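Lecture notes, continued. The same structure-token format from the folding unit now serves as the input rather than the output. Read the line below as a description of shape only.
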């Protein structure tokens, strides 16, 4: 009986020896497939994606160049009038959203326009401009109005609402000379 046990141990050791060895078929088939896959990925990346990236850079550079040229033509007039024609809306008092009239905001808004004609145009329409300012500011919450970077967003929104109401008005910038919350 001892021989049978030893024989079975020998057979199990021999069988396990075949399974734990490294199969050369993995290297013969797997390694070339892996190399082919790397080459395909390289060519896809190099030819397709890089061409798209380069074309985007070229078109961006062309757009920048044309914008700069346009900016040079357009910016010559505003440079002369930058800060020269400012429409001022003093002491606009607003109840921000969600305060139930318990909190107030006081703001003085200054709109820098390109020409004296546009300044006169805004002065003639003061009630409309004031309503646009009040509507825009009163739609914001105290939390929004108290954020540090929100003033810039508010300036952009005010500029957009004025431009949508009066498309002929060219706004250089908007300034707050007072921005007080109580």
């Amino acid at each position: 009986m001892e021989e049978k046990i030893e024989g079975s141990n020998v057979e199990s050791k021999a069988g396990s020896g075949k399974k734990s060895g490294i199969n050369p078929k993995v290297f013969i088939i797997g390694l070339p497939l892996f190399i082919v896959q790397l080459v395909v990925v390289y060519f896809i990346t190099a030819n397709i994606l890089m061409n798209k990236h380069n074309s985007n850079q070229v078109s961006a550079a062309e757009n920048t160049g044309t914008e700069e040229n346009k900016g040079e033509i357009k910016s010559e007039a505003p440079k002369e009038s930058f800060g020269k024609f400012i429409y001022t809306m003093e002491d606009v008092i607003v109840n921000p959203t969600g305060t139930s009239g318990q909190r107030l905001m006081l703001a003085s808004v200054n709109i820098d326009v390109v020409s004296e004609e546009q300044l006169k145009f805004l002065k003639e329409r003061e009630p409309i401009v004031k309503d646009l300012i009040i509507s825009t500011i009163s739609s914001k919450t105290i939390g929004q109005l108290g954020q540090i970077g929100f003033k810039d967003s508010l300036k952009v929104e005010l500029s957009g609402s004025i431009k949508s109401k009066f498309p002929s008005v060219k706004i250089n910038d908007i300034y707050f000379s007072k921005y007080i919350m109580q």
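Point for the exam: The mean pLDDT is 76.
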